[in-house]
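Could you help me review a protein record that somebody else here produced? Do not assume that whoever made the record got everything right. The record follows directly below this note.
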Amino acid sequence: TAPCKTLAGAISKTATGGEINVLDPGGFCAVTITKSITIDGGGVIGSILSSATNGIIVNAPGALVTIRNFSINGAGTTLGINGIRVLAVKKLLVENCTVANFSANGIDFNNSTTAADIVISNTTIQNTNGGISYAGPSGSTGSAGFTVIDGCHIQGITTTGINIGSGTATISNSVISGCSVGVKSNTGATAHLSGNIVTNNATAFQGPGAITSSKNNSVTGNTAQGITPTVVNQQ
C-alpha cells in the first residue's frame, strides 16, 4: 500500500516471481535475493551503495532472477566486496547495469554443485579486482550451465576481465580493456569470442582452457596476446 525505503524491505513484501520497480531516484541498500524475482530500476536512477559488503547476493536455488537498470557502487572508505555475488540460481539475467569499485569481482558466480544459465548484457564493469568470474560445476556444457556475455564494457580491472572456470561461455560484441588479463579460460572450460574488442590489456588471452574465435574480433594494443584462439568458421 506504500513504497518501501529499501530493496530488502520491498523483497520481503513481493511474491515469488514478482517484480520490484523503482519509483524515485535514490540508493536502496544492499539486498539478498532468495527467490525468483525481477528488480528493475528503469526510468529513474536505481542504485545500491555497498561499501565493505556485497551489493547483491543471489542465493536462490532453482530460481529465475532478473536484475535490470541498476548502478551498483562499492565506493567508500572500504571498498565493497562483490557487486553481484551468486551462490545459487537456475537462471540469472543481468541487463543494463553499471558495477564499479569492488575489491573482489564485479559479478561473481561461485558454486561447484549447482549449474546455472547466466546472461549478462549491456553492462559496464570498471575499477574492480576481477570483472566477471564464473566458477560453476565441472562437466559437459549442459551439466555445467552456460554463460552469455553480450554488449558489455569491462575496463580498468586489476586481474582478469572475464574468467571462465567451467562450462561454456559465449562472449560477443563487448569491449575488454585495461585488464591484467582480458579473457581467461580455465581447465575444462571453453570461451567462444565473436565481435569483441580486446585492447590495452597486459595479456589478451590466457589458458589453459579452450578459447575459440569467429575470426571477427579486434585484438590490438595489448602488451602480449598470450594463447592464440582456435578459429571457428562462421556459418
